[in-house]
Design a protein that fits this description.
184 residues, alpha/beta, 3-stranded mixed sheet, 23% helix
Length: 184
C-alpha cells in the first residue's frame, strides 16, 4: 500500500500509517532498534534519555532501562496540560487511555536534564519531519527541550520521502530504524 500524496491531509496519513503498522513485526524491530541504539555513542554520552512507554504498534525501547541507561518517561495529564517528565525504574500505572506511564509519585526530572529524546511517531519523512498522533504533546514538549537531541524511532517502512508539516512541527536530528541510525 503506497503512502498518500504530500497534499493529503494529516488524517489520511495517520490512517495509512496505522494500517501499515499492523503489518510490522514489532518485537523483532524493537530488538534490532535497541541493539543499534546500544552501539550508538550519543546514547551513552547522554545524562538522561527520554523514552516512551510503547503502545502495541510502537517500537519497545524499555530494554534500555534494564541495561542501565538513565531513562525518563512522560506522564500525561488526565485533563489537558503539559506532559511532565519522570525517572523510570519504579512503579508504572495505566492512564485512562490505556497506555502505561510512570506512577504519580515517580521522581520528577527537569527538562534541562534531558539530553536525548527517543521520539515516537506514526510516520517520518527522510528529512526528519514527524507526524504523530495529533494531540500536540510532543510539539509542546520540544519547546521545553530546545537543546535535546531528537531521534525519531520508527520501522523503516514508515520512513517516507516527506510528510505534511505545519509551522509548529519540530523535526528530528536523526532517525532510528531496524536498519540502523541515520543522522540527518
Amino acid at each position: 500500500m503506497n503512502p498518500p500524496t504530500i497534499e493529503a491531509g494529516k488524517a489520511e496519513w495517520r490512517t495509512w500509517a496505522e494500517g501499515r503498522r499492523l503489518q510490522i513485526d514489532f518485537p523483532t524491530v524493537s530488538r534490532l532498534v535497541t541493539a543499534h541504539l546500544l552501539e550508538w555513542r550519543p546514547l551513552h554520552d547522554a545524562g538522561a534519555v527520554l523514552i516512551y512507554l510503547p503502545l502495541a504498534t510502537e517500537i519497545d525501547l524499555t530494554a534500555l532501562i534494564d541495561v542501565g541507561v538513565p531513562c525518563v518517561a512522560t506522564r500525561t495529564p488526565e485533563r489537558g496540560g503539559a506532559l511532565t517528565l519522570h525517572a523510570l525504574g519504579g512503579a508504572l500505572e495505566r492512564h485512562r487511555y490505556g497506555f502505561l506511564q510512570p506512577a504519580a509519585d515517580a521522581p520528577p526530572v527537569e527538562a534541562v536534564d534531558v539530553d536525548l529524546v527517543l521520539t515516537p511517531g506514526l510516520v517520518f519523512g527522510r528529512s526528519g519531519s514527524r507526524l504523530g498522533r495529533g494531540a500536540g504533546y510532543y510539539d509542546e514538549l520540544f519547546t521545553r527541550l530546545p537543546n535535546a537531541y531528537r531521534v525519531g524511532v520508527v520501522p523503516s517502512p514508515l520512513v517516507v520521502s516527506a510528510v505534511p508539516v505545519e509551522k509548529h512541527d519540530v523535526s528530528m536530528h536523526a532517525l532510528a530504524t531496524e536498519l540502523g541510525i541515520s543522522v540527518l
